[in-house]
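Notes from hallway chat w/ T.B., transcribed later so I don't forget. T.B. wanted the structure written out for a chain they're using in a teaching module, and asked if we could keep both sequence and structure tokens in one place. Agreed to drop them here.
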Amino acid sequence: MPSIDRAGTYQLGDRTVRRLGYGTMQLAGPGVFGPPRDPDAARAVLREAVALGVDHIDTSDFYGPHTTNQVIREALRPYPEDLVIVTKVGARRDAQGAWLPAVSADELRRAVHDNLRNLGLDVLEVVNFRSMLDAHGPAEGSLEAQVTALAELREEGLIKHIGVSNVTMKQVEEARRIVPIACVQNMYNLVHRHDDALIDALARDGIPYVPFFPLGGFSPLQSDALSAVASGLGATPMQVAIAWLLRRSPNILLIPGTSSVAHLRENMAAADLVLPDEVMAKLDGI
């Protein structure tokens, strides 16, 4: 059975988690909308993730909407004591599945209660506010009202820790002036490295950075180059991308997603993939 212990651990809020976790986005239907095509398979993936040692699961009640969290509850509740479930708020879905901002204080409160109900929890361990100023990437603009609203829910005891997602360095600094920030979740990978400075700054302060889309936005040439490196290592491109991220900085926590048990096991095995210095140099050149 693949081991994820080699990846090490890091602090997330007041919990210590293994650096290789699992993201649930792919458990929803096509376009992250509607129920899973095969609910039994979705539950099997979640149970296998926990069996492999995953103790950090990333989700959101706007996946589906609602259905992904319900599947998590069906598969894993009562939850293992060491399992940290991280969710996110700030968006909603319309009847056609479009992604729409949901950022008022009332909408954020409703989203927190939706997550609590559908996950079957009394308190949420970590809630990320997902900026929707630009759905395709970080865009400058104040998040003070939204982070303050979540901080009030934290004071009420509904949330333990707050994170931010799809944000800029300036927005992270603004959020940290309002409330302690437990994590930052942005798109980052081998070829999209705009957050290098942010990752290093967070590492200095012991704050985890959680990249999503480890193979997102690669050009055909970049994909070919990655595939060539992976072939030379006897690994898959995804495994190499994960291994590179794990080596990039100790504060990086990963949440690769899949709806397949076999693919899940491949991803977890990336923790055991050693990237020699010459391979790292070749990857950095991609």
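Follow-up for T.B.: The chain is about 40% helix and 15% strand. Might be a good example for the class.
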